[in-house]
């Protein structure tokens, strides 16, 4: 089951959505819940998405995530991911190319959180 945690820190709202061990239906449900929560807050947020080798990123999930990212772009201040294997890192490259962002992968939630909370960093420095 997907878990979604909201953390309010340094006047920022950060969501951590953990897709570890989830199948497509659970991931889609979690994505829908996250989208609803972001819309309800209606202010810029920071987002960490956590994966592991048992979380299967399917084409349907990716299309949904891409569509939601476009729709919520004005509210997604900065994003990071945790726990990608080499195949998922390639999927992230395609995601970044499509959305013209530079969402980065980190080894831990703590590293991702430090990146997101650092006002000197951005995920909008996409380079082709």
In short:
By secondary structure, the chain is an alpha/beta fold. Helix content is 42%, strand content 23%.
Model description:
By secondary structure, the chain is α/β, with parallel strands linked by helices. It contains four helices and five strands; from the N terminus they run ββαβαβαβα. It has a five-stranded mixed beta sheet with strand order 1-2-3-4-5, sandwiched between helices. Helix 1 runs parallel beside helix 2 (59-71).
Specify the number of helices.
Answer: 4
Widest sheet, order of strands: 1-2-3-4-5
CATH class: Alpha Beta
Number of strands: 5
Overall 3D shape: globular
Biggest pleated-sheet summary: 5 strands, mixed
Spans where pLDDT lies below 50 across 5 or more residues: none
* Beta-strand residue fraction: 15-25%
How much helix, percentage-wise, in residues?
40-55%
End-to-end Cα distance, whole Å, is 36 Å
CATH 2nd-level architecture:
2-Layer Sandwich
Q: Which structural category do the helix and sheet elements fall into?
A: alpha/beta
| The CATH fourth-level homologous superfamily | STAS domain
Return the average pLDDT rounded to an integer. Answer: 95
Integer-rounded radius of gyration: 13 Å
Which H/E pattern describes the elements?
Answer: EEHEHEHEH
Topology:
Blueprint lengths: L2 E7 L2 E7 L5 H18 L3 E6 L8 H13 L4 E7 L3 H14 L4 E3 L2 H9 L11
Parallel strand pairs: 2-3, 3-4, 4-5
Antiparallel strand pairs: 1-2
């Amino acid at each position: 089951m997907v878990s979604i945690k909201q953390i309010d820190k340094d006047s920022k709202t950060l969501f951590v959505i953990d897709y570890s061990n989830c199948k497509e239906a659970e991931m889609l449900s979690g994505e829908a819940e996250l989208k609803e929560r972001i819309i309800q807050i209606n202010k810029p947020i920071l987002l960490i998405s956590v994966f592991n080798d048992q979380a299967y990123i399917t084409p349907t999930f990716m299309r949904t995530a891409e569509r939601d990212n476009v729709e919520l772009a004005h509210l997604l201040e900065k994003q990071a991911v945790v726990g990608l294997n080499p195949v998922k890192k390639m999927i992230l490259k395609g995601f970044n190319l499509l959305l013209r962002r530079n969402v980065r992968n980190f080894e831990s939630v703590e590293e991702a959180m430090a990146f997101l909370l650092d006002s000197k960093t951005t995920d909008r420095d996409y380079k082709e």
